[in-house]
Amino acid sequence: MISLEDKKRITRIGTVFALLFPISFVLMPYLWMTLSSFATEKELFSNHVIPYALTFDHYHQLFTRTNFARQFLNSSIVAVAATLMCLVASTFAGYSLSRFRHRWNFERVMLIMYTIPPVLMVIPILLIFTRLHLTNTYFGLALGHSTFMLPFAALIMAAYFNNIPPALDEAAMVDGASRVGALIKVVLPMALPGIAATGVIIFANSWNDYLYAFTLISSREMQTLPVGVAELAEGQTLQWGMLMAAAAMITAPMLVFFLFIQRKLLAGFIFAVTGEK
Amino acid sequence: MAQVILKDVTKRFDRTEVVSNFGLHIKDKEFLILVGPSGCGKSTTLRMVAGLETVTKGEIYIGDRLVNNMPPKDRNLAMVFQNYALYPHKSVYQNMAFGLKMRKHPKSVIEERVRKQAKILEIEDFLDRRPDELSGGQRQRVALGRAIVREPDVFLLDEPLSNLDAKLRVHMRMELIRLHKRLETTMIYVTHDQVEAMTMGDRIVVMKDGLIHQEGTSLELFNQPKNLFVAGFIGSPTMNFIDCEIIRKNSSLYAMSKGMMLKIPPEKARAYDKYDKRNLVLGIRPQHFYSTDLFPGKIEGNTFKVVAEVIETLGSEIIIYLDVEGQIIVGNMSADTEVSPGQKFEIAVDMSKIHLFDPDSEEAIY
């Protein structure tokens, strides 16, 4: 007879093993990428999994021989701008979806918009932006990113607001606030985890976007990271070491960011879906 | 302090009419109760007064100002919500101060008013806590405090006690009555609980399906319900409704139903004269049944035989379910009544307290 205590222990060990597989599956490429970025050119094509000699050469080359620093700056500006623009719009849109009766079912419209692949919209957006002289600008690219992130962000924010009782806005309005005042003074402070969670997703999408950045930006000066890194892989000879260093540099800020706020992020999503804290 | 006047107020959501031609004059300093089953439009009416719902048709006056198009913040009302609606990210003090801050009162005034009311409501020890660190009763007090410090013209209370447990509810009921006496401010109180309505209000308005069915004091509603709905809604346990036929025998009127033949007292008979041979609904409150053993002052024509089905003992009284030839009626009698389930016995009815209703119009006949 196995005691209940032992059974519990076995279950726990089993769970760890069950989790180990998907986690290593996900982490392997990152590990490979990081290790490769520090390996010498020679080591890259040897049989060693873990390089014997470490070098910062690839990183050095990345910053001296390519436009990487500028691209990093461009990406940061665009991602921050897209996040801010999209957050402001989606907060108001989400609040409106959550609190007002609409003659048309805007929620469904948003959902349909979300299912349209961004690639379908990129050409029309390019044509419009060309006329508005918005191509090759930070604002234009950030706006482009907002167009495909907005429906999703608004839906997430609406789900979040749905879990904040409308009686709170009403209490604030009876207490002397306007509708917007109630939103800013009472509802928004409560929605901060949701706003943070949505913001991170928008930021990550803008940061990672290749398609819009490639289409809307033609000048080298304005290129963002994904486009710049892709160019590294376009020549006759692939510079694997530098490519890996660039990939690691792109991933690093997002990774650090996620590690810092993962708790808040999860809490934000759980509250949006279940309404539980 | 102000009166509230609703003139022919109608509220429609899409095509459903939730409140229809609601007309009411709420006097200054009155404690008015809106009571009715859920979905009767009582909360919507209150929310229209607060400005949280628009008015489809009609006019609402607070004091002598027409407020139809005035946003809630300018109406100088305070509202207490069913789930208290305390701001969870603010402390108790900040919750209570919020309304005053929005109205730009100086800090010293805010501080003084909040501390004073917190002391009266016995929540001064919790001023730094967050709402989620408080019990239900304490949250209720904070919600009340937040309304009181504003010193509004009118208090609106939307089922403020329904989230409390039974014992606390009875206690808060008494505190609210005292509060109204102390503040001398108009209060409009919405509830679905007829006991709350009966015990608290100066005047009670009974609503159903968006219409006012009756308004009056507790006793008026209890003793002279206007129709079947009010008769059934007010009073606990619910009034017994028995289908009966009015017949004349030896120049007296009788209400006859299965297993009972009850003589209508002569002073009441005049009103029912023209209903001879008609079918009516006889209404008898459970409190108006007596055991003939306990009260031997038995008058001919007001007793009938019953079988006790279920007996609920409440201490000072019993609630007893009685079978009258297949029809179940409920009696609320003295605990001294000696009866056990299955026992056959005779009970008497206080015939001066009976009600008769027209089954078609559902109106009471007096």
Walk me through the topology.
The complex is a heterodimer of chains A (277) and B (366).
Chain A: H1 4-38, H2 41-44, H3 57-65, H4 68-99, H5 106-115, H6 118-131, H7 138-162, H8 166-174, H9 179-208, H10 211-216, H11 225-232, H12 240-274
Helix pairs in contact in A: 1-12, 3-12, 4-7, 4-9, 5-7, 7-9, 7-12, 8-9, 9-12, 11-12
Chain B: E1 4-13, E2 16-26, E3 31-35, H1 42-50, E4 57-62, E5 65-66, E6 77-80, H2 92-102, H3 107-120, H4 136-148, E7 154-158, H5 166-183, E8 186-191, H6 194-200, E9 203-208, E10 211-216, H7 218-223, H8 228-233, E11 240-249, E12 252-257, E13 260-263, H9 266-272, E14 279-284, E15 289-291, E16 303-313, E17 317-324, E18 327-334, E19 344-349, E20 355-357, E21 364-365
Parallel strand pairs in B: 3-8, 3-9, 6-7, 7-8
Antiparallel strand pairs in B: 1-2, 1-4, 4-5, 9-10, 11-12, 11-14, 12-13, 14-20, 15-19, 16-17, 16-19, 17-18, 20-21
Question: How does the overall form of chain A come out from the CA principal axes?
Answer: flat
Briefly note the structural class of the backbone of chain B. alpha+beta
Average pLDDT for all residues of chain A = 88
The domain count of chain A comes to: 2
| CATH homology superfamily name of the largest domain in chain B | P-loop containing nucleotide triphosphate hydrolases
Number of helical segments of chain A?
A: 12
Distance between the termini of chain B: 38 Å
Q: Work out the strand percent of chain A.
A: under 5%
* Cα-to-Cα separation, first versus last residue of chain A: 41 Å
The named CATH superfamily of the largest domain in chain A = MetI-like
CATH class of the largest domain in chain B: Alpha Beta
CATH architecture of the largest domain in chain A: Orthogonal Bundle
Order of helices and strands of chain B: EEEHEEEHHHEHEHEEHHEEEHEEEEEEEE
Largest interface: A-B, 17 and 25 residues
